[in-house]
Amino acid sequence: MRRIVRPTLIAVALAGLLAGCGGSSADKAPTQTAARVNDSEISVHQINDVLAAQAGRIPPDQTGVAARRVLDGLVTQELLVQRARKAKLDDDPRVLRAVEAAKRQILASAYLEQRRALEHKPDDAEVSAFYDKNPAVFRDRRIYALDEFTIEPAPGLGEALDAFVARKPAAGAIADWLSARGTPFALRSAKRPAEQLPAAMLNRLKDMPAGESQVFSNPRALVVLRLTGATPAPVSLDLARPAIEQLLLRERVARVEQQEVRALRDGAKIEFMGEFADMGRRPPGVDGAPGAAPGGAATPSLGGASEMPTGFGATPGEAGGAAGGLGAAPGGTGAGMPAAPLAPTGAMPAMPPAPGTMPPAAQPGPRP
């Protein structure tokens, strides 16, 4: 696992970069200028800001290379900026509006970042309680081997599927049944750890015997999951702790951000006018969340659904890889359908997918 690049490492790398830019360090006083582009200068602080935004994604032994790459990009950017100013684009109303929108977004994000910095990571008791509350994802975790059917929905098809899979048919029999009805579908087999399954699916699969199937639905498709086996792959509290801490902290921060925005809106005098006069104090959608910034810029994240860990490294039963997609059933009835859409219920901080598992996609919900 790659370590986070510390500011001191970045500073050391930048110092080495500057020392190598011509001449002897004994002949030149330290400078905060990394490069000159015509009459403009690029500072070490500009490089440092870009590297700081990439912290955690740069291996320590690659910091010097990354600094040089960033500087080269800043040189190109400066040349383009100079040409844009020469063309008077900095006076263009469209550009001025975009600059103002970006400035507002940066200020709003900076305020929320300041509030986030006040939150502390969860204590041991909170982490242990979360671990104990989710045994199917941790202590009793399993790797589920599944045949996954993604089926084009049709009136009455869900009920007919429920009745058919209750007979515990094999995957081939399900494919034949769908083909006989002329129903488009896609079929693949996969190994999925518990944390990659939506909670509604996991609750129905965890105690299901091999050979049985369940039908789920989402707005785009029906999904049939046929369980072919389940291998125990427990995760200890110590291994799960970092991911749980990140999840709980992120949820706490999301609540704080929502409360902060809600308090600001409640304490402000907000009046909607013209065609927007019928809007309430809060916009539709996320409670208390600001809308999208002008020009399509994303507003500060105010949190979302609770998420579960997504992969804890190799454990027994995860080696070997998932079987590739099995493709369409005889007759080509699977053509044109996407692979079965599955996703975890929520999202823990991203962890490397476990070997032998399939990456999550869109989440289906349980059939009522």
Automatic annotation (TrEMBL):
Residues 283-317, 336-349 have a biased composition (Low complexity). Residues 350-368 have a biased composition (Pro residues). Residues 1-26 form the signal peptide. Its EC number is 5.2.1.8. Gene3D superfamilies: 1.10.8.1040, 6.10.140.970. Residues 122-241 form the PpiC domain. It is an enzyme of class 5 (isomerase). Residues 281-368 are annotated as: Disordered. The keyword Signal applies. Residues 318-335 have a biased composition (Gly residues). It holds the Pfam family Rotamase_2. Keywords: Isomerase, Rotamase, Signal. The keyword Isomerase applies. GO terms for molecular function: peptidyl-prolyl cis-trans isomerase activity. It catalyses: [protein]-peptidylproline (omega=180) = [protein]-peptidylproline (omega=0). InterPro entries: PPIase_EpsD, PPIase_PpiC, PrsA_foldase, Trigger_fact/SurA_dom_sf. PANTHER family: PEPTIDYL-PROLYL CIS-TRANS ISOMERASE HP_0175-RELATED, PEPTIDYLPROLYL ISOMERASE. Belongs to the PpiC/parvulin rotamase family. This is peptidylprolyl isomerase. It comes from Derxia gummosa DSM 723.
